[in-house]
Amino acid sequence: MGSVGVLTNSVMVCAPLMAESVEQMVIDMHSAKAQGADVVEVRLDCINEFQPSQDLETIIRNKPLPVIIVYRPKWEGGQYEGDEHRRLEALRLANDLGADYIDLELKVASELIEELRNKHQNGGKFIVSSYLNGATPSKESLGHLAATMQATEADIIKVVSDADDITEMERIFHMLSHCEVPAVAYSVGERGLISQLLCPKFGGALVYGSMEGNSIPGLPTLDSLREAYKVDCINSDTKVFGLVSKPVGHSKGPMLHNPTLRHVKFNGIYVPMFVDDLKKFFDVYASPDFAGYSVGFPYKEAVVQFCEEVHPLAKCIGAVNTIIRRPCDGKLIGYNTDCEGSITAIEDALRDQKYVNGRSLNSPLAGKQFVVVGAGGAGRAIAVGAKSRGARLIIFDIDLERAKGLARAVSGEAQHFESLAHFQPENGAILANATPIGMHPSTDRIPAAEETLGNYQLVFDAVYTPRKTRLLKDADAAGAITVSGVEMFLRQAIGQFKLFTGREAPKDFMREIVLAKF
């Protein structure tokens, strides 16, 4: 098969292929194209008993899209441990056979590029790569490295680091935006995920995505790059929003916020941000381009101190789940949309089940015993909301002092989490789980005693992965009304969207996404 095109100036989506046989490599090339890849990176060092003359011809003859040929040695993080001369001969052969791109390590690039350019005036293009051990270097060091790589007359340069902290990505973005030739730069692992997703904003030439069923830490899937993030729509003016959390893998926020931003034609992207140190994070990402954040576990309380202003409701709760960078002065302003998101979901479920007569001015929670499990950020929001509706609060937490602190704030009672196993609620009480218990992958756990679930009129679970947790299944079987965390997630996201964009959220559109994808 002849040449099927090469990379353009716009960002392209690349699937790294690491099959152990040539036959599987050909299958994977076609699968990658079907899943939305523009180009594939073929790792020759992963192929068992690789035979250059035979196997390269098979790969290049059967390629359905442009290929980057990589033959990575052990000394540069690859798997090849053989003779260096034999490795370089294989790369020369790939160029002879018409590979679209040849990836060369910086150590060998200058000499080989000059040789191959002289031999093939109209041959493939050359990517010069450098794999860095340890933390990402300083901006100055990366700048010097980029200049050295550019001096090899590379068509594209590629730098890969192994990030210890998400703040290292800012150095990578700086390098991308200052390169004089097309560049690829990213960090591996979950903390480096934003280096892939935000690459187009800072001028990167290539975004990597994993194929379905072959997840790679730190890489988004090809499908998410095309459908959720739509990387081809990102440009230098795109505003960045994200979930600040640890971990972030469970979040479905990008599946909801990104399509909604596009629906209202707002130039923004919402990404997961694995954050270890809040102070470092907010110090480093101080640009107006980083316009707002959702805040998840375990940071909803701790993040309050980094907000320069806090909305009165969030201040009362002592927890923030939404931050915006105010455009006029760049200050971080903290809000809480969890409170109304959770309480209105519970109230509406009670009203829909006709447990209250009509829509009186009083909340259906007024006077009810309301059991909150977890005194963290989500628990605080739920408890303050329930108190505002006239409920009687009992707070359970593994940290009794934390439970007592929240109980004092809502004029309630505090108990240790262990006593929940023997706790007998009043008939018609409300139970709200605000802990991660039952979250994927530990989906077989529930926070309360199964035999007591029938005493509750309604059971709410803030966990939304899975949508129907074991707690909700058991409560449903016991005859209780159940409210999924998905409903709270949707409602708090509607509130966040208005804060992020200054526009009314398209509620029906957002609900349709949740029903279809969650």
From TrEMBL:
Domain SDH C-terminal: 485-515
Protein origin, superkingdom: Eukaryota
Residue ranges occupied by any Shikimate dehydrogenase substrate binding N-terminal domain in the UniProt entry: 243-323
InterPro entries: Aldolase_TIM, Aminoacid_DH-like_N_sf, DHquinase_I, NAD(P)-bd_dom_sf, SDH_C, Shikimate_DH-bd_N, Shikimate_DH_fam
GO biological process, one term: shikimate metabolic process
Sample GO molecular function, one term: 3-dehydroquinate dehydratase activity
CDD domains for this protein: DHQase_I (cd00502), NAD_bind_Shikimate_DH (cd01065)
Protein name per UniProt: Bifunctional 3-dehydroquinate dehydratase/shikimate dehydrogenase
